[in-house]
Amino acid sequence: MTGTLALTIGLAVLIGVSLGLLGGGGSILAVPLLVYVADLPPKEAIATSLLVVGATSAVGVIPHARAHRVRWRTGLIFGVAGMTGAYAGGRLAEFVPAGFLLTGFAVMMLATAVAMIRGRRGAEGRPAPHELPVPRVVLDGVVVGLVTGLVGAGGGFLVVPALALLGGLPMPVAVGTSLVVIAMKSFAGLAGYLSSVSIDWGLAAAVVVAAVAGSFAGGRLAGRIPAEILRKAFGWFVVVMGVFVLGQQLPEELRTSPLLWTGVGVAAAVTVALIVRRGRRTPAPRREPATPVPAGSASRH
Hints:
This protein is an all-alpha fold. The chain has helices at residues 2-22, 26-37, 42-66, 72-92, 98-118, 134-151, 156-166, 171-193, 201-221, 227-248, 252-255, 258-281. The protein is globular, with a radius of gyration of 21 Å.
């Protein structure tokens, strides 16, 4: 038991590193960690992950706020809408079978991973809107919050693009603002879960401390690792975790079938080939033609 606790706390550092580096990904790591390493029941694991991610995000906001990378008005509007959806999702989860919640979580992991690997197309080069599209932000906040509260996933990697595209925020500001939103939504989802789920507060506190330490480490590493490499590497890691969680929900006879895993391997190979091909077909940035040098002006040696 002591070894399991130590491993859980050690791996919890990665939750904070992910939040510090990427502004999201905490729940993607927290739920599998708490289910398969700490051996918590799925609903208790989801509720605990909401506490861990919420507390870690709240602490992680501090350095971003000091660096003026938080847009408070945008974050609070999105966050309040997300809290409404997250609380409703947390209450709704009481009536949803645990296996269905984990399956939904795995699907969310895979969708998130695909979005990370492909990269975000969007807002670069587009003018930022002068006014915040409040109705659309509220709608997106409620939907993202509902997903977060229900399956404990879909926080940062849905919030960051939404803030960048809808609010016209630069990516560093979108990451900082997303932590405000994630904290608000996570605590609201936790409140919904607490009506039907109890939490091991000692374990939760230990994981929170480890994740907060990791978030400071992640914040220090931010900018030192190329964003493209980091995003794609984490995306493939999430693919592996998503397939693992999804496989755990299959019946025993299917889970141990060589034919099934052969098919998964073929599908993975085809997906990798398509992504690599897409990357090769991406046109290189155009270079401006060199300014012609007048004849006779070149230096002679």
